[in-house]
Amino acid sequence: MSTVAGHYSYWMTIVLIVAGMYILIARGNLMKKLLGLAVLQSSVYLLYIAPAKLLGGTAPIVAQGYTVYSNPLPHVLILTAIVVGVATLALGLAMVVRIREAYGSIEEDEILARDRADDDRAPDGAR
Amino acid sequence: MLEHVPALQVALPLVAAPLIVLVRSRRFAWLATTVVSYLCLLFSIQLAWRVAASGPVSYAIGSWPPPWGIEYRVDALSAFVLVAVSLTASFVAPYAQRSIAVEVARDRQYLMYAMYCLSLAGLLGIVITGDAFNLFVFLEISSLASYVLVALGQRRQALMAAYQYMLMGTVGATFYVIGVGLLYLMTGTLNLVDMAERLRAVEDARPVLVALAFITVGMGLKLALFPLHHWLPNAYAYAPSMATAFLAATGTKVSVYVLLRYYFTVFDPVPLFSHLPTEEVFVALSVAAMIVASFIAVFEKDVKRLFAWSSVAQIGYITLGIGVDNQSSLTGSIVHLLNHGVTKGAIFLLLGGVALRAGLAALPLRSLAGLGRRMPLTAFGLVIAGLSLVGVPGTAGFITKWYLVLGALERGWWWLVAAIVGSSLIAVAYVWRVVEAMYLHPGDAGAPHRREAPPAMLAAAGAMVLLCVYFGFETGFSVGGAADAAAFLLRGLR
User: Fold this and answer.
1) Rounded Cα distance, B236 and B417, in Å
2) How many other C-beta atoms are found inside a 10 Å radius of the C-beta of residue B3?
3) How many alpha carbons fall within 13 Å on the CB side of residue B409?
4) pLDDT tens-digit profile of B97-143?
5) Which of A90, B82, B437, B461 has the fewest CB atoms within 10 Å, i.e. the most exposed one?
């Protein structure tokens, strides 16, 4: 029981990793793939933050009456990781918009089919 | 001033990028990019010289002493890779002006330079930093900029290639940061030197092994380790010429550097090569890359894709040295970071000139017909660089293969020598297809006669071709630096 309940945050991390990877691989819709990517990235946030937080711990400021402190470093790291994640998602969404403009679709199989049709029509790749 | 060179190495291109966006002038963008690239080369040479003279250079960012603050650390390996990356950059930057002017829409050209500067800053940052998380941030800076560089390609396929590159690259980076998280939980430090010391106490703990697995797969995606190379051929084929040359010569190489750093310094106390099948895995995957990817290259119809597949095969040579794991093979691996960078950089720069003169967004093999007459210098350069890919004596590629074969022989692995030679023979086949198209097929009667690429582009590409030959004869810097780095890695951090 303790391996399940005591490591609750780690189990959730694993669930998030696997769910994110599954969406990323199994879905053909470019938007849904990005959502999978977001889920995968949020697993990292949990992996770093959960062990750094102590029950009853406060911010690491020396003051009377407080002896238990949370580790601030992982929190700061994840602040950075969230920014990186936001930047990645923003770029991904911008690309999906551009892909939709260029192909008129955001379904991976339809886009690839159009590319194949292009290749058959214009083998010289003229501009 | 001189003691701040490690910080300037990264800060300079990082500051140049927003400046370029603010000024929004193409001329300024190109000028800033070129100046920054040359300054970076100067800085990296100065650092390499300092490391050779007096050992590793440590720089505390913001004067916070390591292991608490972020440390920039230059040792034999990072000095070598820094020079390799900035050397490529110093050839690509002067080339970029004419190439970008034709291939990228007018209002987006300055953005292309900004992205190039960001990518350069990220790559140099990955190499110079001694902090595991800082490395992740630089990894993402360079990757995000690379995705944009690929997406700015002329054809719409570039968007899809960039999207797929972004998905796989982000999964790779996320896996890397998961691995770092586990290592941080086990050691309580992010400084790579400190981490190696502290791992000794927990070397058999399972999270450390899981971290190793995550970092290996994550960086494997970034460096296009076979069979994680799926993003590479499309990204290289559809990116603008200058971006392809820059990424092919530097992007994957820097990821190999990260893998080397973790395997031979951070995980050094962990019984990596004795208890785990690391050796078998790396040798098997590398040989598969060398053979399979070369075969695919032989049957590829598009020239840029052909050489992209050849890149997957050449990365196989680099990772092979890690699997064989001795002084000679590692020297071969590390020197190939430079040699292959120079060779592939030269090829893609030359192909950029061909695409420019042919007015084509894509280069099918038959568009090279008659190139030997139309662009004799370019065609000849492609032949020389192609020979370097094959590994003909007198070219840079030969030096690499020589050390890899030596390493295999030291282990008594004759079959591996056969595999290296076999894959070189397949390389002869795909290089021959290019040569055949250029010299043995008559071009269109209406094609313009003798029109070489613009002088600035031809000069940059030609200089890289010369380097292919130079590093084939004069190996003082290339093999000397690589051998120092290999000895440093095998000695570990102690």
Assistant:
1) 29
2) 9
3) 7
4) 888 888 888 888 899 999 999 999 999 999 999 999 999 999 999 99
5) A90
DSSP B206-246: HHHHHHHHHHHHHHHHHHT-TTS-TTHHHHHHHS-HHHHHH
ipTM over 0.95? The verdict is no
Closest CB from A37, A84, A118 relative to B137: A84
Domain spans, chain A: 2-55+68-121
10 Å Cβ neighbour count for A93?
13
Q: Highest mean pLDDT: which of B298-307, B363-372, B436-445?
A: B298-307
pLDDT tier, B446 (very low <50, low <70, confident <90, very high otherwise): low
Chain A residues touching residue B105 (CB < 8 angstroms): none
The vertex-B184 CA angle with B231 and B59, nearest 5°, equals 85
Q: Residue B74: left if φ>0, alpha if ψ -120 to 50, beta else—which one?
A: beta
Nearest CA in chain A to B153: A127
* Average confidence (pLDDT) over A97-122: 86
The domain tally of chain B equals 1
Domain that holds residue B286: 277-494
Return the CATH fold of A2-55+68-121: Helix Hairpins (1.10.287)
Distances in Å between the Cα of A1 and the Cα atoms of A12, A54, A55, B435 are 16, 21, 20, 68
Task: Report yes or no on B86 lying in a domain.
Answer: no
